[in-house]
Amino acid sequence: MNILVVGATGTIGKAVADALAENHTVIRAGYNDGDVRVDLGSKASIEAMYNSIGQVDAVVSTAGLAGFAPFSELDDAAYDLALQNKLMGQINLVRIGQAHISDGGSFTLTAGILSRNPMPGSVVISLANGALESFSKAAALELGRGLRVNTVSPVFVKETMEVMGMDSSSGLSAADTAKAYLAAVEGDLTGAVFDAPDYA
Ligand SMILES: NC(=O)c1ccc[n+]([C@@H]2O[C@H](COP(=O)([O-])OP(=O)(O)OC[C@H]3O[C@@H](n4cnc5c(N)ncnc54)[C@H](OP(=O)(O)O)[C@@H]3O)[C@@H](O)[C@H]2O)c1
Question: Cβ contacts of residue 165 below 8 Å, gap of 6+?
């Protein structure tokens, strides 16, 4: 398959792209770097990316910005970032991507465990993650041409915890997290949420 990985220069995305590249042709998209650049916050940028790479068989997103902050400190900009980038950016990858993906192709988006296991400071991230899971469940019912859409829900990644100076013993490595994305791309489920620890 020809597979576009958006966020392929990131912690999870690089592991996903490397794992997929063992059996597929991978086009790596990033914000600053990659085979192609894209800004998830801009529909025009997403359109330009798809136009520049030609038809693909699968799209994986491991991108999406949203910030931690106490509820009392969340301003409009914090909500806008989560809603316009992490949420609508990934939804727009599906909306716009339908015209650029083969029949039977798949979209795999990234949500996260904070949708169902929130923590103080996670309000906008939890909000975007929950909405992404609901979006893919509902959109899966209506996508035609055998297209599929799923969401992967990662837990805290060991490499991310290490960069943050945290004890990473409770985390899942990026390589193990990538296995859930492979299952979503190479399997036949749609409208599903792939909890990363279940595939490690
Ligand atoms: N890491 C974790 O512990 C964890 C846990 C649960 C969920 N998640 C979710 O998983 C996703 C990936 O996390 P990560 O830790 O791998 O992130 P990361 O290391 O920060 O990588 C982010 C990726 O997204 C790209 N990107 C940044 N801004 C973008 C934009 N405006 N448009 C398009 N692409 C953009 C980056 O490109 P450049 O490198 O070119 O800037 C990079 O490829 C996020 O949605 C995160 O919320 C992560």
Answer: none
